[in-house]
Amino acid sequence: MIKNSSIYTESTSFDSEMNQENSIQKKKDSFKLPYHRDQLEYWGPVNHVFADSFLTMGHTFLYQYFHHFSGKLLKSIFSSFVEMVQNVSEYNELAFNDNYPQSYVRLKDDSGEILINTANKIKNEDLLSVKTIFEDAFRIEKSLLFEEYKTLLMNNGSLGLIMLRRLKNSTVEFTFSEEEGEHWLSLELKISYGNT
């Protein structure tokens, strides 16, 4: 479990560390994201360099912890994890250049379900367009998702949200919220593995 992304030196004061911990816990409490066992979680800046490292850790976690799952199930879980983490890192890099905001990523075993959560800051000027993308993708009826997937594939469209919605034995939900004047997008994917 990674509690935060800060690297402390010997000169860092105890008060500074406590303030950082309190800040992280406060933000996690606002998103109802407490620390748990049997998971990977991270709160800090997310860009493609970090995403690559965290995805490697996620791959190891999944394939060692769930080695008894079928290869097909593991692949669909990992592909979803990749999609969600890369969405956060790509948005952060496009919207914030080199000043990446704090973001949240979690991969968790939750007694019969794999939970994948992300939460990231959305710029005020992007809020309407990002909301529209999500609302449009979630407005499509389940029975029409395959046709939409094919259409997007043939037209070089973005397949990520449609792919997440098409997963078997899963639910995906998104929430837009405002915390201290900042807009946030939270995404949660639950993939049921039952008695696998």
For the structure shown, list the relevant keywords.
196 residues; alpha+beta; Heat Shock Protein 90; 5 strands; disordered N terminus
Secondary structure: helix percent: 40-55%
The major beta sheet can be summarized as: 5 strands, antiparallel
How many E strands?
5
Give the name of the CATH superfamily. Histidine kinase-like ATPase, C-terminal domain
CATH topology: Heat Shock Protein 90
What's the pLDDT, averaged over the residues? 83
What is the topology, as strand order, of the major beta sheet?
1-2-3-5-4
Tell me the structural class. Answer: alpha+beta
* Number of helices in the DSSP assignment: 6
Structure description:
By secondary structure, the chain is α+β, with helices and mostly antiparallel strands. The protein has one domain (14-192): Heat Shock Protein 90. 46% of the residues lie in helices and 23% in strands. It has helices at residues 14-30, 48-65, 71-96, 127-139, 145-154, 160-166, and strands spanning 39-45, 102-109, 113-122, 170-179, 182-192. It has a five-stranded antiparallel β-sheet with strand order 1-2-3-5-4, with helices on one face. α2 (48-65) packs antiparallel against α3 (71-96) and α5 packs antiparallel against α6 (160-166). Residues 1-14 have low confidence and may be disordered.
